[in-house]
Amino acid sequence: MNSCFEVSIDNHIAHIVMNRPEKRNSMTPAFWDELPRIIDDIDADGETRVIVISSTGPHFTAGIDTAIFQQNNAQGSDEAQRQAQIQHGARFYDNVLHMQKTFSSIENCRVPVLAAIQGGAIGGGVDLITACDMRYMTEDAFITIFEINIGMTADVGTFPRIVKLIPEGIARELAYTGRRMAAREAKSIGLVNAVFADHKTLLDEVMKIAREIAKRAPLAVYGSKRIINYSRDHSTADALDYISIWNASMLQNTEIREAMTAAKENRDGRFVKLPPQKNRGIKEVLS
To answer: How wide is the angle at C-alpha 47 spanned by C-alphas 42 and 49, nearest 5°?
Structure first.
């Protein structure tokens, strides 16, 4: 059962919706468990070709629920408090690794993940959207690396990813000041692909893009995502070698012929789905 998300799957497109608008879709402990499970189950099934993550209410997400930081207050005897104090660093480290894996599941997913952002993507929201393949915003949307405003250093994934998406100087400014970056500025520096007038238009247009992706050969899209991610993190020489090895093992002439025939006949291609990864059913995601 998902307490933070609603999930629907139609025509090879999975739509994951954050559904706690009354709490500004803050990231509670359940959030960090549910999202990677949903992503992994969708990916494992092999039927889905693209994922859209959107939200409800005035903000995409208010970021990490600050109540999380109040759960480690030591209680009980002096000895219990002493042990808790000594273990605090290790516990915090393990917790951050768990949260980092949540957003890495988006990046590691075989299919593209699109973020549709209305209102604010605040704090942990920036960690989330920078892990996605593409980002789209409403005109009133904004991002803020808010952690600096509450005496923290962002630690769940923003910095390793955002410096590869926007100029380093701008990333540093956002990190050091915590200021809001509006949608139009975000588009001007390439952080978001497009900006739309309102939430409805945003969702309509992002779904159009998702449908275009879903028409393509799944294995080719998977390979493109894999190679783009690899190229981002490695030298050009290494990436060229990797794509050669990838295509040597993955390139399918039957899919190429089907794509060309479908284009000639002005119809959708009849492509083979990605292979299932493990024995988990898609029904788990929809519960």
So the answer is: 80
Spot the catalytic one: 127, 143, 162, 255.
127
Q: Which candidate in 65, 147, 157, 255 is catalytic?
A: 147
Q: Active site includes 155?
A: yes
> Does the annotation mark 64 as catalytic?
yes
User: Which helix H or strand E contains 243, and what residues bound it?
Assistant: helix 236-250
Sequence ranges of the chain with CATH classification 1.10.12.10: 218-270
Q: Note if 170 is an active site residue.
A: no
Whether 127 is catalytic is: yes
The string of pLDDT tens digits covering residues 54-86 is: 999 999 999 998 776 665 555 667 777 778 778
Closest residue by Cα to residue 156 from 18, 5, 35, 6: 35
For this structure, is 124 an active site residue? yes
pTM above 0.85, yes or no: yes
Q: What is the CATH topology of the domain spanning 218-270?
A: Lyase 2-enoyl-coa Hydratase; Chain  A, domain 2 (1.10.12)
